[in-house]
Write a structure and sequence with these properties.
The chain is an alpha+beta fold. Helix content is about 35%, strand content about 20%. The relative contact order is 0.11. This is DNA polymerase IV.
Length: about 425
């Protein structure tokens, strides 16, 4: 193997293999949030590339609440894990750079990334905010060798957008995804069916897509330690102790998966939410409402940017005694207006709150629909003027930065105008199956 991931002989072989069968690419951004933050900062005059030092994206750099969403390669040397608390990560590396998430930026980068891919194939499926599947079948008239085409795409993204990707190539989604997970960053890899034994079956069982800690532990207790062990195990026995999930991962271990690449122009979104663990106990209704407003600002902006309206608003809270509760309300007609969502969020909070000090608040919208048409009920308040203001504010923030304009109610309040940084799993879901 060369540094590029596939040597010249393999490229020629791959080109022959891809004839008369499906060719699927999986393109995955390396350390997406951190890479996008680094590129954005460098473009705006920052001299430090945070990809080259211990750094993470996630949580609040001041209060050190929240979790690690993504980490730099140097941060791995300190055993910092995705999903661990910012407090724990900071204890491992006192010099750790913590960057607050900026989902508006990430969605812009994701769109630019997808726009480039659409120039190479008409069938592109966005699987999450930082990864796409591409059906490259029957493109040999334009690109004789799909592996060479993968290098062209990879290098173009790096040169034009400033961040790196891994490209996995195979005959179906699962093998293409497994290929893209091999050595990183900035690589192209193949795992064709006759390469599984050499490239995939030798990997630890935990490396297989859809194998979590609990499943891996159960498999290892039966001496199934590699993907190859699982591939060669009796599927009837696997089903006995892992049920239908066992058959799914057994099929994946054998490279069996046949779902099509489904063209979509938007991410598959079920809901958009934001929550924050507050640095102090909130003991009055006014401050709680202000925190809800800061959360709603982020949620509503992401809702509009995604091109959706919502029919359901939910509010959750956690007291300083760790009591959790939530409440939701449905609209007759869908909305994307910040003030409309905020009004309902405050009403829901007032119905929930019993006067206890509040430590955590969350706002979420769901039951989403496209916003091409917006029809009001007979006695419903018309938010159209406020929606126009929202769009104007979104445009200013997109051009000049998130902090370029914000409500005066946040001045000297002790509450940030844009709070939180928790993206729900459902917003860009890693679905339970590729099917």
């Amino acid at each position: 193997m060369t540094d590029l991931g596939v040597d010249c002989n393999q490229k020629l072989i791959a080109g022959v293999k891809c004839m008369n069968q499906r060719v699927i690419f999986h393109i995955d951004v390396n350390s997406a949030y951190l890479s996008w933050e680094a590129v954005h900062r460098l473009q705006h005059g920052d001299l430090l590339d945070i990809r080259t030092v211990p750094a993470v994206v996630g949580g609040d750099p001041v209060t050190r609440h929240g979790i690690v969403l993504t980490k730099s390669i140097p941060a791995k040397k300190f055993d910092i894990q995705t999903g661990e608390s910012i407090f724990s990560a900071s204890a491992k590396c006192p010099a750790l750079i913590i960057v607050r998430p900026n989902y508006s930026l990430y969605m812009q980068c994701s769109k630019a990334f997808g726009d480039i891919l659409r120039e190479y194939s008409p069938i592109i499926e966005q699987y999450s905010i930082d990864e796409y599947f591409m059906d490259f079948t029957n493109m040999e008239r334009l690109y004789k060798d799909p592996v060479k085409a993968a290098y062209i795409i990879k290098d173009r993204i790096k040169n034009e957008l400033g961040f790196t990707v891994n490209v996995g190539i195979s005959t179906n989604k699962i093998l293409a995804k497994m290929a893209s997970e091999l050595k990183k960053p900035d690589k192209v890899h193949t795992i064709f069916p006759d390469e599984m034994a050499e490239k995939m079956w030798v990997l630890p069982i935990e490396e297989l897509f859809m194998i979590g800690r609990a499943t891996a532990k159960r498999l290892r207790s039966r001496a199934i330690t590699t993907i190859g062990d699982l591939a060669h195990y009796d599927p009837k026995i696997i089903k006995l102790f892992l049920k239908s999930h066992g058959l799914l991962v057994w099929n994946y271990a054998n490279g069996i998966e046949s779902s099509p690449v489904r063209e979509n122009r938007r991410p598959l979104i079920k809901g958009i939410g934001n929550s924050t663990t507050i640095a102090f106990d909130v003991e009055d209704r006014g401050t709680a409402h202000l925190v809800l407003l800061s959360l709603t600002e982020t949620v509503a902006a992401r809702l509009r940017q995604s091109g959706y309206c919502a029919r359901l608003v939910s509010v959750s809270l956690k007291t300083n005694g760790f009591y959790n509760c939530s409440h939701q309300r449905k609209f007759f007609s869908a909305i994307d207006c910040t003030n409309a969502i905020y009004k309902v969020a405050c009403e829901l909070f007032d119905e929930l709150w019993q006067g206890e000090p509040v430590r955590q608040l969350g706002v979420r919208v769901s039951e989403l629909c496209q916003n091409e048409f917006h029809q009001l009920a007979l006695f419903e308040k018309d938010y159209e003027k406020q929606r126009t203001v929202d769009r104007a504010v979104d445009a200013i923030r997109e051009r000049y930065g998130n902090g370029s304009v914000f409500r005066s109610s946040f001045l000297n309040s002790g509450v940030r105008f844009s709070t939180g940084g928790t993206m729900d799993d459902e917003e860009y879901p890693m679905m339970s199956s590729l099917l």
